[in-house]
Amino acid sequence: MLGPPAQESARPSALSDDELIERWLLARAQAGAKSRETERAYRREVARFRSWAAKPIRHVTYGDLSRFVRYLGEETSLRPSSVARALAALRSLFDFAIAQGILRAENPTRMVAAPHRPPPPPPALLAPARVQALLRDSLALPLRDRLLLLSVVVLGCRGQEAGALRWGDFVLDPTGQLGVTVGAGGPDQRVVAVPDGLTSLLLGWRRAQRVGGAWDRDDRRYIFGSTGRRPLSAGAVRRVVGQASRRLLGRGAPSLHLLRLSGAALALSAGQEPARLSADWDLGREAVGDLIRTTRRLEDSTPLWIWPEAGQDRSAGL
Fold first, then answer.
1. What does pTM read for this prediction?
2. Which CATH class is domain 128-317?
3. Quick one: CATH architecture of 16-111?
């Protein structure tokens, strides 16, 4: 007499959803999944979907998944990265089910687009009126501190670039316009035109430092170093500019980086061409694009600086 047939392991098509999920997680672990935390997160995401869908995995459709992704983004207020993780977990599960012959249709998650991450918020720049007030009120600063602040806001120097300026970096062109080589000798080297009012301040600083004679490209003395033999460090520039901006703007004064970007945005609002700004301030295309969008939102579109009429003290316009 023949006995009952031997018990066989469950066929893939006969697996329950719970068994399918356990096999899927085991296969991921055997394949060297990234981390236990990722596996726990994937398990949670699949459990959340099953609770929401309330139907067997075999019966899930593209429409179900599309509505689920929309639900996560609109009703749970999950970040786009978290919604994308949930979709990645379901995509992995359905890929496994198809590979095991449990599902015979195309993976429905492949037709659901992951949410796009929103663009980063624009930098918190100073409004033009506040920067103009900063430039005007900088008259109260010691001359060296004022020049360092203006090197950042008007010339677009980074901290290290401002501290490393030499007298020989300033050269007059044939028309008498003073220009300065910022970042001299480095990969970000560029030549920037110096406004007349800032030229007047620099001449005053030359007199204070007893630097005589005409602008000389061979003069290797540093402008802001204590003896002219060493540059002022980037940290020292940040401290000086930070103290100056806090003195003029209060405790909420922005960082040196945001002061520099504020100057660039204001130059755009004053009519400077984006390509010229990109070259003068060493800003990439994306950064300039962000600044353009920011300046469009600024309420005040007054010029970056207003120089006094001829015959007045031209340094007062800074």
1. 0.58
2. mainly alpha
3. Orthogonal Bundle (1.10)
